[in-house]
Design goal:
Helices cover 54% and strands 21% of the residues. With 234 residues, the chain is α+β, with helices and mostly antiparallel strands.
Length: 234
C-alpha cells in the first residue's frame, strides 16, 4: 500500500511538473512573437530614419515570413507559398550579393490549390547552399508550379553541382549524415501525409547544366483544406 501511495505521489509530481513546463512554453510562444515583431518594426523605423532602404526591405520580408511560420495551419495556398518564397529569396539576394537571379512561374489555376505549409522553401535553400554557393559564375534558380493530370507539380531548378546518385532513396534517409537532409525530410514528410500518391525526384539537365527537384503531390482544393482544418480543431 505504501509503495502504491509513493508511486501515485511521484506520478502527480511529474504531471504537475510537465504542466508547468507546458504553461511556460505557451507563455513563451505568446511573448516571443510580439517581441520579435516589435523589434523588427523598430529596425524598420530606424532604417527609414537613416535612409537605408535595404534594411527596411529585409525587415518587411522577414516579418511576413514569421507571420506565416507562426500560423498553425498545416495547409496553405500556393499563392501564400509564392509570397513566402519571394520574401525568402529577396533576403537571400542580399546575403549572396549578386550571386544568383531567380524566376517564379505559377500557373494561375494552381494558385488556388493548397499544399503542406512551407514545403518548397527547403528545396530552394538546398539549391542555394549546394548549387549556387559552390558555383563560380552567377547562378540561376527557377521555380515552376503547375497542375497536370490531377496532380500538383512543383519544379525547382538551379545551376551548380548535381546530386549524388540515389540521394533520395529510402536507404539514405535514416542515416542523417547527408548534407541534403532537407530534401530527405521533405520526401519523408510527403510520404507520411500522402503515402504512395506522392513522388519526389531529382533530375539532371546535362544540356543546360541545371539540377532539378520535382515534387508531385495530389491536388488539394480550398474546400478540402478547410475540412482538414476543421478536423484538426475537432
Amino acid at each position: 500500500m505504501l509503495a502504491r501511495i509513493r508511486t501515485l505521489i511521484t506520478n502527480i509530481r511529474c504531471a504537475e511538473a510537465e504542466k508547468r513546463t507546458s504553461e511556460i512554453a505557451m507563455l513563451s510562444m505568446q511573448i516571443n512573437p510580439h517581441f520579435l515583431y516589435n523589434t523588427l518594426h523598430t529596425i524598420k523605423v530606424l532604417s527609414i530614419m537613416q535612409g537605408v532602404e535595404n534594411i527596411q526591405t529585409v525587415t518587411d520580408a522577414l516579418s511576413r515570413m514569421m507571420h506565416l511560420n507562426l500560423d498553425t495551419r498545416k495547409l496553405i495556398s500556393v499563392a501564400e507559398e509564392e509570397t513566402y518564397l519571394r520574401d525568402y529569396l529577396q533576403i537571400q539576394q542580399y546575403r549572396y550579393a549578386g550571386k544568383f537571379t531567380y524566376s517564379i512561374s505559377i500557373e494561375a489555376e494552381a494558385k488556388g490549390h493548397f499544399l503542406p505549409k512551407l514545403l518548397v522553401q527547403p528545396v530552394v535553400e538546398n539549391a542555394l547552399q549546394h548549387g549556387i554557393a559552390k558555383a563560380q559564375a552567377t547562378g540561376i534558380i527557377q521555380i515552376r508550379i503547375f497542375l497536370e493530370q490531377e496532380r500538383l507539380h512543383i519544379l525547382v531548378r538551379n545551376s551548380g553541382p548535381g546530386f549524388a546518385p540515389g540521394l533520395l532513396d529510402g536507404q539514405h534517409y535514416c542515416g542523417g549524415g547527408s548534407k541534403h537532409i532537407g530534401l530527405q525530410n521533405i520526401d519523408r514528410r510527403l510520404h507520411l501525409l500522402f503515402g504512395d500518391h506522392v513522388h519526389v525526384r531529382d533530375l539532371a539537365d546535362l544540356e543546360q547544366l541545371l539540377t532539378s527537384v520535382e515534387l508531385i503531390l495530389p491536388e488539394i482544393t480550398e474546400s478540402e483544406a478547410e475540412q482538414d482544418a476543421d478536423f484538426d480543431r475537432g
